[in-house]
Design goal:
Layout: H1 4-14, E1 32-35, E2 38-41, E3 48-52, H2 71-87, E4 92-95, H3 105-115, E5 118-120, E6 122-123, H4 136-140, H5 143-156, E7 167-171, H6 179-195, E8 199-202, H7 206-218, E9 226-229, H8 238-246, E10 249-252, H9 260-272, E11 279-281, H10 303-314, H11 319-333
Helix pairs in contact: 2-3, 5-6, 9-10
Length: 342
């Protein structure tokens, strides 16, 4: 007769170990990512640009009008750039434009359908730039009230649509965190614990990034739920290594043709320190800007695939290293799951 204890031991053997807590991989639920067209398995993201913009409106929250932009004009301008990267082997684009700065989820859905790219949008608020892009209620409400607003978009869809966010996009002030910045991170911690959405915060210098991690940990959120956005703006590059070792994601997302050699050097340093598994890479490029003739100057999303990847290969990076950066890490970083401190 097989007892409960012997049955558990048999499962442990099938899992390849008798260590407690190890789960047979085939029994683990597949991780998911929320795109503007719905849930997909995280592996379906494929080659991913993790920080780009399709439309940005810099008018400010006080005067922001989402109707002042014509979708057909944006599609005419932007779609060729999306098809271009699709042809280069890109499968997914993470759109980091937050609410009150031009987020238009129905436009993103149309562009996803037309281009064949997976596109991911966000919830959250942009608190940098002296609060220019924060609605008045964000200054008055508590962290719990803000978290509830973002959670509602996750549960019910954004702006009455069926489109749901795939992560949180925030922004904080660049130095020691201000009270408003602290409130936004506290709200993000609360929202993460109820939704599992990753927190990507426009941060820059390391002092703010490590301050954000401390707040998240105080609220029970593990560092691997956090993306340090615009980490390349930190002048002490050794801080990247320390950051990855906390578990947070270091996002080097200002790639352009003029700095390919600099990015190759930064990535080489991180590779030598065995930190590539916590690094994300992108351009912060685009975008259509309402109010400018023809939507303004649009910067293409092609440098990573056409310039950086060949430069990394010439520098001795393996195909596995490159896949780690553009395929494996994005799937891990944006997979929806609650990450708690031990």
């Amino acid at each position: 007769m097989i007892t409960r204890r012997s049955f558990i031991q048999m499962l442990s053997v099938l899992a390849g170990s008798t260590l407690p807590g190890k789960v047979f991989p085939a029994l683990q639920p597949a991780r998911k990512v929320m795109t503007v067209r719905g849930l997909i398995e995280s592996g379906e993201l494929g080659n991913t640009l993790i920080h780009e913009h399709i439309l940005v409106d810099f008018s400010g929250a006080a005067t922001y009008d989402p109707t002042r932009c014509n979708d057909d004009d944006v599609i005419t301008k932007v779609l060729p750039y999306l098809i271009e990267i699709k042809n280069d082997g890109c499968n997914s684009l993470i759109d980091c434009t937050p609410n009150y700065l031009g987020r238009d989820v129905l436009l993103l859905k149309k562009l996803s359908e037309l281009s064949g790219l997976h596109i991911v949008t966000n919830t959250g608020y942009y608190g940098g730039s002296d609060h220019k892009y924060l609605p008045d209620h964000a200054l008055r409400e508590t962290p719990a009230q803000l978290a509830e607003r973002w959670e509602l978009e996750w549960n019910d869809g954004i702006d009455g649509s069926t489109v749901r966010p795939g992560f949180m996009k925030l922004s904080v002030n660049p130095g020691p965190l201000s009270p408003v910045s602290r409130k936004l991170i506290e709200a993000a911690a609360k929202c993460h614990l109820r939704t599992g959405l990753t927190i990507a915060s426009h941060t820059g210098p390391a002092v703010a990034a490590f301050g954000e991690i401390e707040i998240l940990k105080q609220h029970g959120v593990a560092p691997d739920a956090f993306i340090w956005v615009h980490a390349q703006n930190e002048t002490d590059k050794s801080r990247y290594i320390n950051a990855t070792r906390t578990g947070m994601w270091v996002s080097l997302d200002g790639l352009e043709e003029s700095n390919v050699n600099e990015y190759t050097g930064m990535l080489r340093q991180l590779k030598n320190e065995k930190c590539l598994h916590r690094v994300l890479i992108s351009h912060d490029a685009g975008w259509y800007e309402p109010g400018k003739p023809g939507g303004g100057n649009f910067r293409a999303y092609t440098t990573l695939f056409r310039k950086l990847v060949p430069a990394l290969k010439a520098d001795g990076f393996s195909d596995r290293d490159i896949q780690q950066l553009i395929r494996i890490n994005p799937a891990e970083a944006f997979a929806i799951r609650v990450r708690k401190t031990a």
